[in-house]
Amino acid sequence: MDEVIxxxxxxxRWHKAIFHRISRRSFGPKDLQPEELSxxxxxxxxxxxxxxxxxxxxxxxxxKVFKGAIGSYGKITGAQALIAFIGNAKDPNVNEKIGYxxxxxxxxxxxxxxxxxxxxxxxxxxxxxxxxxINKGERVYAVTPVGHALEEFSSQEKVxxxxxxxxxxxxxxxxxxxxxxxxxxxxVEGALEGARVSPSAHNNQPWEFNVSSERITISISxxxxxxxxxxxxxxxxxxxxxxxxxxxxxxxxxYRFLNDPDVAVFNIESQHEPNN
Length: 276
Ligand SMILES: Cc1cc2nc3c(=O)[nH]c(=O)nc-3n(C[C@H](O)[C@H](O)[C@H](O)COP(=O)(O)O)c2cc1C
Hints:
Elements: H1 11-20, H2 34-46, E1 53-59, E2 81-88, H3 94-111, H4 125-132, E3 138-146, H5 155-164, H6 172-175, E4 176-178, H7 186-196, E5 207-211, E6 215-220, H8 228-248, E7 251-257, E8 262-271
Parallel strand pairs: 4-5
Antiparallel strand pairs: 1-2, 2-3, 5-6, 6-8, 7-8
């Protein structure tokens, strides 16, 4: 795996954002300010932890980009801007890279006080590619609207969240095998608490974790890995959450990508005083 410059991750800022991020689909009239947009654009250009994936901010009404889940139902509406996650389709790890890196962008946008929603299915990649002019061999894998959501959830959002059971997460004991929980080092608890609340397509939570005192291996669950297209992207998101949770609990480590059905292994390299 390409080297991730871990010291540069804003650990406590993004770790906090993990626990208050929530998908929003109905955006309100409050505009993003020009300086907010230019700073977001700069961040998208600067945050490049891997080769072969990049993010681009696209300003202007994004309604034509999004599709509904059933008719116009579940469609994202009213967002003034979007961020597109673009990757090199030939890269064998493109999905997990998009997940990890896209979630970094989403957590930063959340920490800045804006609303987001990962959208991998219900959008038109051709329209986005046309607006942004992507390179040969690249694909738009996912997008997120960016802006200020309505203060109250719209009735459409409420129905969509209920339908997907968006607030539910699989209990920890069903996700993990390996050493018993009462033997987990503190960093493992922190890493997996973060990973468990990761967003995933249809809230499928396709991950499972094998734990030892020095490493966590993340694999695709036979039971929950129902959406093949998104399994590795979802696990890439959980990888970033594992890393932020571990760093926040004082453990520094690195990843190596693995082959199906495994996704990656996170190995601890050093431990220091925790952030809290
Ligand atoms: C890779 C990925 C793709 C997603 N695609 C869509 C989508 O196409 N449309 C949509 O409305 N939500 C989409 N979502 C959002 C999920 O439905 C949402 O994250 C999940 O239900 C959990 O809810 P939460 O994000 O509020 O915690 C996607 C999420 C991920 C991670």
